[in-house]
Amino acid sequence: MSPDVRISNTGRWTLAGVVVVLALVFAIWPRGGDESGTRDHSDLTTGASGTTAVERAPGDTDEALAAPRAAAGLQQCPTPAPGAVAAGPLAGIELGCLADGSRVDVGAALAGKPALVNLWAYWCGPCAKELPALDDYARRAGGAVTVLTAHEDPKEGNALAALTEYGVHLPGVQDGAGRIATAVGAPKVLPVSVLIRADGSVAAVLPQPFDSADEIAAAVSEHLGVAT
C-alpha cells in the first residue's frame, strides 16, 4: 500500500471522527433560550439546560400581578362537579389560578366532566393564533366541556399581558414548571391540547395548533365522544 493511500484513509477516519463529535455536541446542546418569539411549536425552555424549573418567576408576586390580572379579566378557574372525585394523572397537581392567584387542584377542578386543557406560552406564535379559536370553542361548548389553559413558562405577568392583547378570557392556571405536561407525557412542544375524560383519564394528547372552533370541536367529538 502506498503512503498516499495510507494518508487518504487516515484523512477519512479523521473526518468521520469530527462528524461524530459534532453530532454529539449537537445532541447535548441546550435547546431554547430565545424569548424573541421565534421558538413557536418548538422545545420548551423551562429546565431544558438542567436548571430547576419554577412555577412562576420570582418577580411575579401577587402584588405585582394585581393590575395585570384586573386588565386581563379572566374567568375564574373551574370547580369540581358535585360528588365528583379527582382521579387520573392530574389529581393532586396544585397550581395558581391566573385569574386571582388562588391555588387549584387541577384534577379535582376538572373532575366529573370532559375537559380540554390547552398548554401554551406567551412567546408561542401558534398559541396566539389558537387561543382565540379556543375561546370561541369554549363559548360554543357551554357547560358540556370544561376548557382550561395552562401557561407553560414561569413569566406569569407576560401571560396575563398576552391574554389581554388577544382578548381571551378563558380560565387558566400558571404552570411554569410544566407539571401538567409531565403528568400526561406531553411532548416538549407548544401548543398542546390534552383531552380528559370525566373520570380523569387522558383520552388524547394532541401536539398541534388548531385554527378554528370547528377543528377543536371535531377533535373533541373524535376523542371524547362529545358533540359540541
UniProtKB/TrEMBL annotation:
PROSITE patterns: THIOREDOXIN_1, THIOREDOXIN_2
Principal location class: other
Region (Disordered): 34-56
Keywords recorded for this protein, A-Z: Cytochrome c-type biogenesis, Disulfide bond, Membrane, Redox-active center, Signal-anchor, Transmembrane, Transmembrane helix
Record carries keyword Disulfide bond: yes
Residue ranges annotated for the Thioredoxin domain, each copy included: 75-225
The protein's name in its UniProt record: TlpA family protein disulfide reductase
Source organism: Rhodococcus gannanensis
